[in-house]
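Morning run. Coffee first, then this:
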Amino acid sequence: MDYTAPHEPTTPYDGYIKHVEADTAARKKVLRYRAPDQEGAPEPLSRELEQIVEEISADIIELSQHLHANPEVAFEEHGSVAKIQEILRRHGLDLHQGAYGVETAFETQVGSGHGPTIAVLSEYDALPEIGHACGHNVMAATGMGAFIAIAELLRLHPDAFDGTLKYLGTPAEEGRSGKEHMARGGAFSPADIDAAIMLHSYGFDLADQVWLGRRVLRVTFHGVSAHASSQPFMGRNALDAANLTYTGIGLLRQQMPPIDRIHAIITKGGTRESIITETAEMKFYVRSKYPGTLKNLSERVEDVVKGAALMAGVGVDIEWDEHPATLPVRTNDQLLSRWVEAQRRRGREPLPLGVVSEDIAASTDFGNVSYRVPGIHPLIKVAPESSALHTRAFAASAGSAAGDKGAVDGAYGLAQVALDFLTDAALRDAVKTEFEAAGGTTDVAHFFD
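And here it is:
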């Protein structure tokens, strides 16, 4: 047997992924989303709305393709906002940039300005180096298309409903929690909106999927420098504390719920081999399926950090949530039922929760919105089922014909959900009842205090 260290990393075994894919394929054959029985908007209005979306489909695709070709990262999306504004102005609409104290956020609305209010959201930030590998170009286009479609419907039928559709541009979802920044500036208040809707690009049409809550932790260990050869006993090694923490997190994983995740890196570990490390720094993502379990996991991680500092004899600074924490998504099934019915009109069949394994789970700042007001965050297929988010392959799909079709179908779906909500009082009551039964509005900003 050759025990020589390889020059290249070994190839990860894909057997587990293949089993997940096989299990998903089997569940797809037998599971179907069963929607609560709600009427929604009058059928003639729904047909006309769908026709309007077809008529503005070129604008929807134009935005998706433009953003795909011109990706901008978190809080730098000036060109993206300008393009959305350009297309809105073609339709006699405009937006207010810098909404809620966030420079690349925006807000606009149509309707009466009172009565029931629902918000449709667009994300448009990209990832560094790999562009729109999360499909936010498609997501931006769906929100914009839904807003324009409702505005055009109101021009034709001013009495279609007595209520308001808000359109919010929400930047910096990728790791910066842009929606929470907006919320702390006054967005997503239950006093202003009754529900919020958006979608996500994906490799499946999913009515619902698990989204984990996420917190960011930064740790700095402070030791005592010393000559690593002549007087190491006079030092206190901050790198030792980082090493102990990394090991402790690995051991903690055995006692975590299987869906929980911790990712840790050492961002600073010393300056020279001959010096006992005086300062070491680490960063973590801590994720969990429920708000309460996320809080508990955070406490356990902090205990590991403090214990490592005690063992190494170093000081420690612990800084949570450099970027605001994000909660899991709480889906409102009454609203979701209208999305599913709308997508079935487009020839899609959104799969229910549980068809795709919850092991394949990420995070989104829409979770923070969903604990303030009722919301949905379904996923729309724009890529092959084997595609993973945050890859170059997914970025290519987001700019493909499948991405364009997803943008148009998604725009109609969001517009239809908004129209259903604004025209159907029984649906609104059911949405509110479900939301309150699930716990109602949460004080997200102070949840981890």
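The radius of gyration is 24 Å. Good start to the day.
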